[in-house]
Predict the 3D structure of the following.
Amino acid sequence: MSQSSTIWSSQASTIPYEIDSQDEAFTNELYVVDQLYNNQDTDSLGDEDACSDSDSDVGSLNYESDSSISSDQDVPVEYRKTDDVEFIKQSKFRNDTCGCSDVYGQPCSKVLNFDCMVAHREDCLELSKDELDLVVMSQLMAHRCSGEKTKKDKTKDRQRSSQKYFFRGQRVCRQTFCFIHGIERKKLQAIGQSLNENGIKPRVHGLYKKKPVHS
């Protein structure tokens, strides 16, 4: 019997091996029992390793399956009717243009980059009412002529402010300016009137903090 088997047998069996010299047949039987015991332990360990390997394989399969499912799922996009209306407005303005010819001799909407105009328009549409008012007011104030008017060595006060419209350093007509900022002509006039009366500050409705008569 080898030393390693003797050590394993001494650990696995409680019968001392000092009786090897007394009874050879009994020693052989002990050796057979130890070998069976050793094989049984190794089989159980092999089963545990197999189970652990199988569990790890199952975990990896589950992980791969979950990742494949999550990657295949598409993020839902919310549909809004206003998107169709906005698309129609943009297409109409692209095809019909602003129709002016005073600045460049052709429609200024064709001179400017239409994609840049649409990008700025969409940014403005995402702003709140007060934020959009301040953006438009700052643009109007930067290119507004008011105060005294000089002509032929005569100075007099202006009755109305002279307003010019620009977008990224290029002059545009009023219609193109309204389209770029996503507003109508009436709203532009209301913002200009508020700018003349109150300066650069958000507009306040006339019935703010007041109870309507018909309430």
